[in-house]
Amino acid sequence: xxxxxxxxxxxxxxxxxxxxxxxxxxxxxxxxxxxxxxxxxxxxxxxxxxxxxxxxxxxxxxxxxxxxxxxxxxxxxxxxxxxxxxxxxxxxxxxxxxxxxxxxxxxxxxxxxxxxxxxxxxxxx
Length: 125
What we know:
The chain is mostly helical. It has one domain (about 25-125). The protein has helices at about 1-15, 25-40, 45-65, 70-75, 80-95, 100-125. Helix 3 packs across helix 6. It is globular, with a radius of gyration of 18 Å. The N and C termini lie far apart (about 50 Å).
């Protein structure tokens, strides 16, 4: 039985995962802008979440851009930061409340759709 488990584990580890491309910068900015406009038109509470999400995103970008070590880390671990922001928003959903959750989620969307493609484009140049 243990031998069969090891064989299945070996097959699982040798699976070829296809490469995927991220969203282009133009599509990301368009999608993020539309989400922002729709959210601002829906109501005051959602507009508050979007405002604080944009503030969190701006602070994160300013912090990354002003520190060369953080910028190097962000460029090298671009996809990892997306996953960490998603995990942080899940944690906020469980324990911190809707305002923090929505703000972190919106900041994560902005990072993934707008700032991460800029980092990837600058890295490839």
